[in-house]
Amino acid sequence: MARAPEADALxxxxxxxxxxxxxxxxVLFGQAVAEAEFLDAxxxxxxxxxxxxxxxxxxxKATLAWRIARFLLATPEDDGGLFAxxxxxxxxxxxxxxxxxxxxxxxxxxLFLLRRGANDRDTALxxxxxxxxxxxxxxxxxxxxxxxxxxVVIVDAADEMTVAAANAILKILEEPPPRVTMLLISHQPFxxxxxxxxxxxxxxxxxxxxxxxxxxxAATGEAADAPEALAQLSxxxxxxxxxxxxxxxxxxxxxxxxxxxxxxxxxxxxxxxLAEKGAGRGGEAAFDAILRLIDLFLxxxxxxxATGTPPPEAAPGEAALLRRLSPDPQAARAWAELAQTLSxxxxxxxxxxxxxxxxxxxxxxxxxxxxxxxxxx
Length: 377
What we know:
Layout: H1 32-43, E1 50-54, H2 61-74, H3 98-104, E2 111-114, H4 131-145, E3 151-156, H5 163-174, E4 180-186, H6 194-198, E5 201-204, H7 210-219, H8 227-234, H9 238-246, H10 249-260, H11 268-277, H12 284-307, H13 318-325, H14 329-351, H15 356-375
Parallel strand pairs: 1-4, 1-5, 2-3, 3-4
Helix pairs in contact: 2-3, 4-5, 7-8, 8-9, 10-12, 11-15, 12-14, 14-15
C-alpha cells in the first residue's frame, strides 16, 4: 500500500499553478470600484458580517479577500477618542507589517481559512468543502475571542461546499459571533443557497481590460505581447490568461481561426493537424484549451450576428471572418445552438473516453456543416 502523503505535501486548492498565491499578492489590478465600496462601508461603520465576493474565476476575488483580511486585522479600531486614527484611504498594509507576515505564513491566529482539505485517505484533495471543515471554526471562534479585536474567515470557494457545509455556514451567518467578518469567494453565486446570498453584502468584481491585464501579468512575472487579444480570450481572467500563456494560447487561437477561415469548404489537412495537437501524449491541457477556444469562437460568432458588430479581434483577420460567417441574427441563433450541442457532445465524449482527435475532428466537421447550410440560404 502506498504511503499517504503528509497534509503539507498536498497542493493548495486555491493556488493557480505558476502564479503567486493570492495571500502573497500585494496589489490588486482593475477592481478599484469593489475596493472603494468596501472601504466606504468600513469608514461609515456599516461593516457587514458577511461579504460575498463574486465575479468570473481569476479576476482577483481571492486577492481582494486577502487584502481585506490584512486590512481588518492590522487597522486599529476607532474608539471615538481624541487620538483616534485618521479614516483609512486604502486597503494597503505594508509588506513588513507583522500581520502581513503572519497572514502570508498562515500563522495569524485571528484568521481562519476554509477551503478544500484532504480526502478521507489523505491521498489527495477532497472535491468539496465538507462540513467537518466548517465545524473546526467553532474552536477558532472560541480561541480567537480571548485575544480580542477583529476576526476574519475566508471561504475559498463557497461554491465548493457540500449541502451540509453550506447549512453550517448559513447558521453562522444567521447568528454571527461578535467582531467576525466572513469573506465568501464565489465564482458561481447562483449555486449558493439563496439564504446565504441574502445574509451577505455582495462585492462584484469585473473582468480585467487590456491595460489592467498587462499589469497583473507583469506582477506574476509574465509578459504579454498582445494584452488586448489575451484579455479577449481569457474573458478578463488573469488565471485563464496565465493558462493560455503557458499553452501558447494566442497562437493556438490563431490556428483555430485560420482553420475556420476555410469554411464552408473545410481544409481537412488543417483540421487533422488541429485534432492531432490535442491528442498527443500528455496533451490533456492542449485538448482542454482547444475545446475552450472553439467554444469561445462559436460564442463570438453568435455575438457578432446578434449585435451586428464583432468583438475586438483576438487574432489577425478575425473581425472579417466573424462578419462573413455570422452576418445576421438568424446565423447567430444557428451558431449559438451549435455551441450548446457541441458542448454536450464534448462532455459525453469525455465521459466515455472517446479519442480526443476523433472528438475534435467531429466537432470541426459539425461546424463546417453549419457553415455550409448558412451559406446556401
